[in-house]
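In this supplementary section we document a worked example of the pipeline. Step one takes a protein sequence of length 339 as its only input; no multiple sequence alignment statistics are reported here. Step two produces a three-dimensional model, which step three serialises into structure tokens for compact storage. The input and output of this example are shown verbatim.
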Amino acid sequence: MSTWLVPLPQTRRWQMHDQSGAHLTDEGFALLFEFSRGPSFAYDLKTLRIVMVNDAAIAYYGYSREEFLKLDLSEIVDSAFWDAVQLQLSSKPLLFNMDLSHTDSAGRKRQVHTIDRALSIASHEIRAVQVQDLNEIDDLRQAARRQLDAVLNTVLSMMRMRDPFTDRHQFRVAALVTAMLREMGIPSEESTGIVVGATVHDIGKQSVPSEILSFAGRLSPAAMELVRGHSQAGFDLIEAIDAPWPIAQMIVEHHERLDGSGYPHGLRSDATLLGSRVIAVADTAEAMMSHRPYRAALGQEPALAELDAGRGLRYDDEAVTACFTVIRSNDFHFPDGVL
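The serialised model returned by step three reads:
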């Protein structure tokens, strides 16, 4: 292995400490650091001088190893972010994450996400930095989203042919959820994931016989159990998909209630995701306001009365408030089409 460690006085062992208390010897940490796929470097907290750098960082920043080890942290961090970095370092945290700009050997600004961890080396305070290029992260997210879209669109197309009623219901619930999240001020990335969850929240009904889904009368207890199994079936179907959001968890939780009266697990209070609670409210509103195979639409006011009666008890209070605002707005109308 090439020499890449700047010698420190009386240093015999490297130890890396994290919240679990784990540590590595100098040899073990050196190997882990050197062969890390992503750019990584370490610096002395007192002098800010770079004391370690791996091959990936050398390739990413364009310096030779010797050049890199003559730098200090302030020569890598874009000056516009230097005060923010110093503020983080002033409290000496075990770990912190930042999105910022780094400057490479050609003076180009590189948008990066950094994970900065504290190390203890004899009497020296050292910090190790893992670097992720934000453009690469965005590319990976977009590729994952395209893959997710392809899989979900295939499954939704199958559902549309087999059970157009449920497909239409999901589409309308997703439209209501979108408006509710906007009213609640949920950030766009989180909001997107919740809307995707709403769009497929009943996907587990693929496991329910179509004659039960379209039955016009009161279902038997056994048939009702099959219908209730759709939440878990949807989770089982989606769980293996590499999604950027917890879609499977929202699917399995959308019939849970704050008081534990829901299914399939009887979860109570805020044990469920916010997205699950928002979908639960929108699902209830749309179902009561729409025609079902076994009954005519109950209408807007009975739906809102049910939500109001269960506000803070069965249904998330903030989600109910957003639903009331959206449904009573002149700007919102349920779409009649399907995806």
